[in-house]
Amino acid sequence: MRHTARRLAACLGLFIAGHASAELTLTDDLGDTLTLAHPARRIISLAPHVTELIYAAGAGERMVGAVAYSNHPPAAQALPGVGSYTRVDLEAVAALKPDLIVGWRSGNPPTQIERLRALGIPVYVNESRDLPSVAHTLRQIGRLAGTEQAAENAARHFEQREAALRQRYAGQPPVDVFYQIWNQPLMTINGAHLISAVIRLCGGRNVFETLPLLAPKISVEAVLERNPETIVASGMDESRPEWLDAWRHWAQIEAVAHDNLFFIPPDLIQRHTPRILDGAQLLCDQLESARAKRAPH
After folding, report:
1. In angstroms, rounded to a whole number, what is the distance separating the alpha carbons of residues 102 and 128?
2. In this structure, are residues 123 and 35 in contact, taking their beta carbons and an 8 Å threshold?
3. What's the CATH number where 137 sits?
4. Which of 232, 227, 270 is nearest to 251 (CA)?
5. How far apart are CA 25 and CA 132, in angstroms?
6. Distance between CA 60 and CA 39 in Å, rounded?
7. Are 98 and 44 in contact (CB under 8 A)?
8. CA torsion sign, 159 to 164 to 169 to 171?
9. Which residues have C-beta within 8 Å of that of residue 272, sequence separation ≥ 6?
10. Is 138 a member of any domain?
């Protein structure tokens, strides 16, 4: 009997040890500590790019809900909706009984994040400001969901692609770039934005990089003053925005004079996901085209 009791106690000890080892603690991009008793099995995403990252990290099957415009990969479109990234439907979130929510610092109102935490739901807040952060987030999601190997493979592939682009374009002559997010109001990005990191990767120079706001409103006069060699626009969907060609009214801009008005689909450059390197390749090709149009010295 004593022998049997000792065996049961040993088994119980192993069970407790295994349960304790399953607990994981990490820090999100806000600097907040997050602890899960076990890898997440019911995940909700509060941003379209976060949805992509979760799938890329091999945890798509663990998703139970996402915000509007979570359209990639196609499987994400079948997920139950939980509102938009600016207005999360708290009741819809609670009904799905998630054991993890992944949010977005720049997009989700802080009050909504706090309300979700008040419901007792663990929330990991993501904010990528440079390209290495994309790989870091993939690894973090892999830890949270217990898909470390798939996440590590995705992160390494991303890092290898980034390194190849950096090596190819690092020595190229710089090209002044005005990146236009929107036309009314006229908006751009500063040097702290992830898109600026892509511009630098391709040997470009953001002409508005010193502005203090991440996505500032600017004037036409400010663009004329900086006289960019290229103008790159995104817009709302896969179609080239009509307002990009409105710059042809100002023939004195170098970008107009050399027909360097370029378009990149926003999903390929404005989302902090592995696909941003697809957008980077397009941008690098466009800047190479601008260099080729320069007069020989």
Report:
1. 13
2. no
3. 3.40.50.1980
4. 227
5. 21
6. 14
7. yes
8. positive
9. 49, 53, 126, 128, 133, 134, 137, 194
10. yes
Residues of the chain with pLDDT under 70: 1-22, 297
CB 226 within 8 A of CB 254: no
Residue 296: predicted pLDDT: 79
Rounded Cα distance between 215 and 211, Å, is 9
Q: Point out the domain boundary residue: 117, 135, 158.
A: 158
The reply to whether omega before 185 is within 30° of 0 (cis) is: yes
List CB contacts of 2: < 8 A, sequence separation 6 or more: none
Q: Quote the pLDDT of residue 297.
A: 61
Alpha-helix runs per DSSP H in 119-189 = 131-145, 148-169
pTM of the model: 0.87
Q: pLDDT value at position 236?
A: 74
Is it true that the peptide bond before 73 is cis, omega within 30 degrees of 0? yes
Q: Quote the domain boundaries for residue 181.
A: 172-292
- End-of-domain residue from the set 135, 158, 181: 158
Looking at the domain assignment, is residue 8 inside a domain? no
Pairing relationship of beta strands 33-36 and 24-27 according to DSSP bridges: antiparallel
